[in-house]
Design a protein that fits this description.
The protein is of the alpha/beta class. 45% of the residues lie in helices and 17% in strands. The chain is built from 13 helices and twelve strands. The strands form two sheets. A seven-stranded mixed beta sheet has the order 9-8-7-6-10-11-12, sandwiched between helices. It is globular and about 55 Å long. Bound molecules: nicotinamide-adenine-dinucleotide.
Length: 402
């Protein structure tokens, strides 16, 4: 992921004829904070916060709890965040954080202790005008609520604008949960319209029917009336049906704890492991993990369009190969930016002590996603460049104010 992020920045820098000082500013994080968090049970966990760039506003980015969290991964994700916030035109910078822990091994009390310890160790580096963390892999509104409470105890700040993704009763924003999937559907609708294929029936497969993939699946018909979901998967495997799968029914089944591999439907067939990636569909939506399409499997992809709802689902080889084959790749920095955009709205609401209605939030989201997509499509068209490179060039121009 770091290779992909840095290689795209270097290509964009070349197009913009940046000097080495400007390039260094974009490749090197502004600050890297590390701490060791020790719980009462004696166990110690490594914690990170990488602040990549804040030229446009406070650093912004998620915070993940996962065993394989490493400084390299956090650096890559922080870099992507700076590009993402700038590509969508938000007055925010980029950051990412994490703790190397398997949260399933912790009791509820230990999870709370770890969350508060993270804030205690890093409080001086975060805050509404410095760096605003949010949920990511294995972190949620409950954890953000603990963190914002700890932050307010340490600093006296009562705005709750130091963290986003909080619960609704604690300053969270309506529409945040669906925002990444909804934003992805808005972007896809516009790209397909531009390609002239939105007005006829087309097929969609979704890898990763979790928070992002599920909401995308349920909401896509609102923006893409001709979309037909023909395959969906989770970590158990997946299902496909030539007759189309009902997204709302699948979502209800998943929310009830079902595994997609066991989805009971006589018209559908089981899909093993990663087979969903190789389905003959018009649009492949990657909403699970990073690096799922790589040099080992890229030649098996048959989709015409790949929507990157996950962060970094394609590695560099796959990105270059599929682009050379004429596949339209809608890059993560645009496709999944709906989440950070509504996080920005949450931060604004907290600071102004306001609560926006869900239709208000969705309307503002549509405005940002539409403007960003139009700008990126226009730039790509004019300069005959990929959407990823175009998004990165526009982001760098904003970050460097050139
Ligand atoms: P999630 O944990 O809710 O969902 C992930 C889904 O992927 C789960 O259903 C899981 O079973 C499935 N999965 C895991 N391994 C799989 C595999 N090998 N094959 C198929 N499915 C698999 O997470 P999420 O919040 O939906 O995030 C998904 C991706 O989107 C992540 O890469 C995340 O970083 C990115 N993202 C999320 C947001 C957000 O707002 N949640 C914002 C931007 C980017």
């Amino acid at each position: 992921m770091i290779e992909m992020a840095q290689s795209t920045i270097k290509k964009a820098a070349k197009q913009l004829q940046l000097d080495s000082k400007q390039l260094d500013l974009l490749l090197q994080p502004k600050a890297e904070h590390q701490a060791s968090l020790t719980l009462k049970n004696g166990k110690t966990y490594k914690a990170y916060r990488v602040q990549h760039n804040n030229n446009l506003g406070p650093h912004k980015g998620g915070l993940r709890f996962a065993e394989d969290v490493s400084l390299d991964e956090v650096r890559a994700l922080a870099t992507l965040m700076s590009i993402k916030t700038a590509a969508v035109g938000l007055p925010l910078g980029g950051a990412k954080g994490g703790v190397a822990v398997n949260p399933k091994e912790l009791s509820g009390d230990e999870l709370q202790e770890l969350s508060r310890a993270y804030v205690a160790a890093l409080a001086q580096h975060i805050g509404p005008d410095k760096d605003v963390p949010a949920p990511d892999v294995n972190t949620d509104a409950r954890i953000m609520d603990w963190m914002v409470d700890e932050y307010s105890k340490i600093t006296g700040d009562t705005t709750k604008a130091s963290f986003t993704g909080k619960s609704l009763q604690n300053g969270g924003s309506l529409g945040r949960e669906q925002a990444t999937g909804r934003g992805g559907a808005m972007v896809l609708a516009q790209v397909l319209q531009d390609m002239g294929i939105a007005k006829k029936d087309f097929t969609v497969a979704i890898q990763g029917f979790g928070n992002v993939g599920l909401h995308f699946g349920v909401l896509m018909k609102q923006y893409l009336p001709h979309a037909i979901l023909v395959a969906a998967s989770d970590s158990s495997g997946g299902v496909s049906s030539a007759f189309g799968l009902p997204p709302a029914k699948l979502a209800k089944y998943k929310n009830g704890g079902g595994k997609l591999l066991d989805y009971p439907d006589s018209d559908s067939v089981e899909l093993a492991a990663d087979d969903i990636l190789y389905e003959e569909v018009d649009v492949l939506v990657c909403a699970a993990l990073g690096d799922v399409i790589n040099k080992d499997n890229m030649s098996r992809i048959k989709a015409k369009v790949v929507l990157e709802l996950a962060n970094g689902p394609l590695d560099i080889s796959a990105d270059e190969y599929l682009t050379s084959k004429g596949v339209t790749i809608i890059p993560d920095v645009l496709a999944n930016a709906g989440g950070v955009t509504v996080s920005y709205f949450e931060w604004l609401q907290n600071r102004a002590n306001e609560t926006w209605t869900e239709p208000e939030v969705n309307k503002k989201l549509q405005h940002y996603m539409q403007k960003a997509t139009t700008d990126i499509l226009d730039y790509a068209d004019k300069n005959k460049l990929s959407l990823r490179l175009s998004a990165t060039i526009l982001a760098l121009q904003r970050i460097l104010d050139i």
